[in-house]
Amino acid sequence: MSRSTGDPNLPIETLREALTVRRVFGEAYTVGETTVIPVARVIGGSGMGFGSGSGRDPHGSSGEPNAEGSGGGGGVGMCAWPSGSYVVRGDEVTWKPAFDLNLAVAGAQALAGVVAVSVACALRAKFRRRMF
């Protein structure tokens, strides 16, 4: 399909091609009697805009040119995360989740922060009661 720069369907077509599990994992594959089917969470969106214009001088004729305008714009965005894969062996199907170490570390850091603030507040309250 030929695409031109001014094609209004370009962002939507691009998004449709981009929103696929193949962006994260690739195609499903079979080795012997085992088939691996990748699964991912894929989110995306697109938007377009345009404008036009002309203008009038609300204070009368000042000798300057009237306002003019034009516009345009558009964009496509996507984000994809691996979820895991289904492994099919004969009549048995198993789920193998993908482990995101970065997400686990961020969760542990957030939990440690909440615990530290809670301990600090409890100790502060305890020492305030002793002083008064």
Main sheet makeup: 4 strands, antiparallel
Shape: flat
What is the average per-residue confidence, as pLDDT, rounded to a whole number?
A: 81
How much helix, percentage-wise, in residues? 25-40%
Strand portion: 25-35%
Structural class from helices and strands? alpha+beta
Order of helices and strands: HEEEEH
Oligomeric form of this entry?
single chain
The strand line-up of the biggest sheet is 1-2-3-4
The end-to-end span amounts to 80 Å
Protein name: Sporulation protein YtfJ (Spore_YtfJ)
Region (Disordered): 48-75
Transmembrane segments: 103-123
InterPro entries: Spore_YtfJ (IPR014229)
Written description of the protein model:
By secondary structure, the protein is an alpha+beta fold. It has 2 domains: 1-98, no CATH class; 100-132. It is 30% helix and 30% strand. The protein has helices at 10-18, 101-131; strands at 29-31, 34-48, 74-89, 92-97. A 4-stranded antiparallel β-sheet has the order 1-2-3-4. A hairpin with a 2-residue loop joins strand 3 and strand 4 (92-97). The longest helix is centred in the C-terminal third of the chain and has 31 residues, at 101-131. It is flat and about 80 Å long. Keywords: Membrane, Transmembrane, Transmembrane helix. It comes from Ruania alba.
Topology:
Blueprint: H1 10-18, E1 29-31, E2 34-48, E3 74-89, E4 92-97, H2 101-131
Antiparallel strand pairs: 1-2, 2-3, 3-4
InterPro entries: Spore_YtfJ
Protein name: Sporulation protein YtfJ (Spore_YtfJ)
Region (Disordered): 48-75
